[in-house]
Amino acid sequence: MSTTTVLIRSEEIQSRIRALAGEIEADYPPNDEIHLVGVLKGGFMFMADLVRAMSSRVTLDFMAVSSYGKGTRSSGEVRVLKDLDSGLEGRNVIIVEDIVDTGLTLHYMQDILKARFPRSLRTACLLSKPSRRQVDVKVDYIGFTIEDRFVVGYGLDYGEKYRNLPDIAILNE
Ligand code: 5GP
Q1: How many domains, in total, are found in the chain?
Q2: To test ligand 1's pocket by mutation, which of 67, 81, 97 has the most ligand atoms within 8 angstroms of CB?
Q3: Ligand 1 in contact with 156 (CB < 6 A)?
Q4: Which of 2, 80, 105 to mutate to test the pocket of ligand 1 (most atoms within 8 A of CB)?
């Protein structure tokens, strides 16, 4: 395994997520349910911490898509590996993603979920790398904006490793 250098510490991630949860809840009428759709596998930790920072009017589901293979660059190819368990019609849906890089994955997710007639559709990404964007994609809630560095930890992997790190780190060459 390669060495890693911490970029965003666990405590900083937690406090940003608490703020994001507050922002999200303030944007919806108090009695409206909010349905979070997590994108596996990278978004699992962000989802787990985000829902714990929110009130009980939250429901959740997961979807798995393939984007990256074993390398560090996007292939542009997105495939649905696991679909949602329940429908989205009439619901306030928020896509919960680990990171938006080229934007290809998110653009695709937004298109297919929009076609299921949610009442509203928004997106929350823990990380954004704006300098890498290839498609113009709307992200309503962003945890941290980062430079063009390949990061691991807090759900994010390299060849399926490092997902369990509590911090977000840069993988040293
Ligand atoms: P996009 O389609 O926006 O280029 O890429 C989105 C997906 O690529 C993310 O959900 C994530 O799985 C992966 N990805 C993008 N940048 C990184 C990165 O810096 N580290 C890791 N581990 N995955 C990344």
Answers
A1: 1
A2: 67
A3: yes
A4: 105
| Range(s) of the domain holding residue 38 | 10-147
Average pLDDT, the chain: 93
Assigned domain for 54 exists: yes
- What is the greatest pairwise CA distance in the chain? 49
In a domain, 43, yes or no: yes
pLDDT digits (tens, 9 = 90+) for 153-167: 999 999 999 999 999
Residue 161 in any domain: the answer is no
Q: How far is the CA of 123 from the centre of ligand 1 (A)?
A: 15
Mean local confidence (pLDDT), 110-131: 97
Residue partners of 25: CB distance under 8 A and separation at least 6: 34, 54, 55
And the tokens for 102? 């080229």
State the pairing for strand pair 141-145/120-128: parallel
101 catalytic? Reply is: yes
164 domain residue, yes or no: no
